[in-house]
From TrEMBL:
It is found in: Golgi apparatus membrane; Membrane. Coiled coil: none annotated. One of its GO terms (molecular function) is methyltransferase activity. This is Methyltransferase. The chain crosses the membrane at residues 12-31. Its main location: Golgi. Belongs to the methyltransferase superfamily. One of its GO terms (cellular component) is Golgi membrane. Keywords: Glycoprotein, Golgi apparatus, Membrane, Methyltransferase, Signal-anchor, Transferase, Transmembrane, Transmembrane helix. Its EC number is 2.1.1.-. The keyword Signal does not apply. It comes from Vigna angularis var. angularis.
């Protein structure tokens, strides 16, 4: 019948339409997370997102990880959220060209936002963080052929070339033994611009100049913390470690491609920074020695403001070791610089402790006496009495001399114990916070117990050499790091800038660290830390109204593939983080209650983008 034929045709059309709708909805379900989930994250995440894939039993990503669109309304946690409310999130993957993105040290951002910066004072190498609407809401992919890093101590001398595919320095500095390209590895012979024949010999020569026993620069434990300015690939700091000296190796993200990334890949403590216009993120009187070897810094600029920043950072009686043509060259220009520099440091109350060949070592005066003996119009002037020498985050440098505290002036020194007793001896600056020796000792004991428990939880997953670079995101007095002293690791102790500024206590224990604002990205390359310890950081960041998703993405950026995160926080935080495990390609390892807090152990999976994977086939 005509009607019957018409109904049958309509039914067929209806079935076909329903099949098409089902197919379309299925497509959105599978791919919607990676496409639509990035609409609020800026054009880069949307345009350059990448799919992931799995090969056999080797994890290279997850087909089922992106099973939900991003829900901005859930980017906070509330008391009482539990397992029943946990559901998956998704993040796109950044384009491969962003595999080395450092959000707050991104020169492309400077150009795009047309920032007016003074290049003569290195403002373009200082931190400039993107506004919220320009932040990358995507996961940073590893480079093509990425491998799990070589373990310490072997890593001091060699790294995988695929992990940092930059050989420019190997060719430019080949005559100075910075680094050498060899097959699929980059080798580090231990040389530098000034010490072609090895950092170890150079370090011993400085110790010999200062008449330290056995040519050991640690001076029987009295010299422990060092700042190496313009450190290159940090071989100087790497070779100090065997002498129980820990150096903060500092260099900018400049024309010397990826020097700090190489340092951290080697397992050597390092930080991206520049002597520009802002104070370095370290408290006053933190270092026994500052070192500069051919660091190409104009120390005379702006009334000596950069040397005065080093003066702020040096302990009473601390040393500045300077190896540069100005110290030995006899041409007219270098002689003029040497004369002016010598006059400046003399007015700063520094004296020459030793001078030999191409190196000079100045020593800072140990009390305020020399400052008081200068005339009233002396330059550089003393800093104002209300200046806080430990206020550093975003604070401009000043061309003035930081005087000693009453305690240091009376003690004619820092009053610190020699290393290793320094680690557990209550430091004199405890009194600056009203803390007692008993509080310090209890905190040390508490974190010894906590860290022992952490290692029990991690033990099924780690060997003695699995971890090397560790970051404590809220270090307080550094007791977490102190509890790890017998492990073959080093710890970047981070003290949030909006909390109690206890970083000077950490340095007084013979440890190192930095001030930071966790509403912003950290000054390091991607994939540079093996373990992140986050004690109440999520709770703190949420109270400030900052994005918790941004914090998770930043932690993922900093964390090496196969690395670990330890979160110690309230249950609501743990439940919140669990929503993102699949999207971040993180795996829950263990979770235990500890008093009012929960300890949550996570491991980051190793994944590659489909483009990177094709390059390895």
């Amino acid at each position: 019948m005509p009607r019957g034929r018409s109904d049958g045709l309509q039914q067929k059309h209806t079935v076909a339409f329903l099949f098409f709708v089902a197919f379309f909805l299925g497509f959105l379900y599978v791919y919607g997370g990676s496409i639509f989930g990035s609409q609020n994250s800026g054009s880069s995440a949307l345009e350059y997102g990448r799919s992931l894939k799995r090969l056999g039993s080797s994890y290279l990503g997850a087909e089922d990880d992106n099973d939900g669109n991003r829900d901005e309304s859930s980017a906070s946690f509330k008391q009482g959220e539990g397992e029943a409310n946990i559901f998956s999130k998704s993040f796109p993957v950044c384009d491969d060209r962003h595999s080395e993105l450092i959000p707050c040290l991104d020169r492309h951002l400077i150009y795009q936002m047309r920032m007016k910066l003074d290049l003569s004072v290195m403002e373009h190498y200082e931190r400039h963080c993107p506004p919220a609407e320009r932040r990358y809401n995507c996961l940073i992919p590893p480079p093509s052929g990425y491998k799990v890093p070589i373990k310490w101590p072997q890593s001091r001398d060699e790294v995988w070339k695929a992990n940092i595919p930059h050989t420019h320095l190997a060719h430019e500095k080949s005559d100075q033994n910075w680094m050498v390209e060899k097959g699929d590895k980059i080798m580090f012979p231990g040389g530098g611009t000034h010490f072609h024949y090895g950092a170890d010999k150079y370090i011993a020569s400085i110790a010999n100049m200062l008449n330290f026993s056995n040519n050991n620069l640690n001076n029987e434990g009295r010299l422990r913390t060092v700042l190496d300015v313009g450190c290159g690939v940090a071989s100087f700091g790497g070779y100090l470690l065997s002498s129980d000296i820990i150096a903060m190796s500092l260099a900018p993200n400049d024309v010397h491609q990826n020097q700090i990334q190489f340092a951290l890949e080697r397992g050597i403590p390092a930080y991206l920074g520049i002597l520009g216009t802002k104070r370095l993120p370290y408290p006053s009187r933190s270092f026994e020695l500052v070192h500069c070897s051919r660091c190409r810094i104009d120390w005379l600029q702006r009334d000596g403001i950069l040397l005065l920043e080093l003066d702020r950072l040096l302990r009473p009686g601390g040393y500045f070791a300077y190896s540069s043509p100005e110290a030995y060259a006899q041409d007219e220009e270098n002689l003029k610089i040497w004369k002016e520099m010598s006059e400046l440091v003399e007015r700063m109350c520094w004296k020459i402790a030793a001078k030999r060949n191409q190196t000079v070592v100045w020593q800072k005066h140990g009390t305020n006496d020399c400052y008081m003996e200068r005339g009233p119009d002396a330059h550089p002037p003393l800093c104002q009495s209300d200046d806080d020498p430990d206020a550093v985050w975003g604070v401009n440098m000043e061309a003035c001399i930081t005087r000693y505290s009453e305690h240091d002036n009376r003690a004619e020194g820092s009053g610190l114990a020699a290393w290793p007793a320094r680690l557990t001896t209550p430091p004199p600056r405890l009194s600056d916070f009203g803390y007692s020796n008993e509080m310090f000792e209890k905190d040390t004991e508490l974190w010894q117990r906590r860290v022992a428990k952490y290692w029990d939880l991690l033990s099924p997953k780690i060997a003695s050499n699995t971890l090397r670079n560790i970051m404590d995101m809220k270090a307080y007095m550094g007791s977490f790091a102190a509890a790890l002293i017998d492990k073959n690791v080093w710890v970047m102790n981070v003290v949030p800038h909006d909390g109690v500024n206890t970083l000077k206590l950490i340095y007084d224990r013979g440890l190192i660290g930095s001030t930071h604002d966790w509403c912003e990205a950290f000054s390091t390359y991607p994939r540079t830390y093996d373990l992140l310890h986050a004690w109440s950081i999520f709770s703190d960041v949420e109270k400030r109204g900052c994005s918790l998703e941004d914090l998770l993405i930043e932690m993922d950026r900093v964390l090496r593939p196969t690395g670990f995160v330890i979160i110690r926080d309230k249950q609501a935080v743990i439940d919140f983080v669990k929503k993102y495990l699949s999207a971040l390609h993180w795996e829950a390892i263990d979770s235990v209650q500890d008093g009012d807090e929960v300890v949550f152990i996570i491991q980051k999976k190793l994944w590659l983008t489909s483009e990177s994977f094709r390059d390895t086939e």
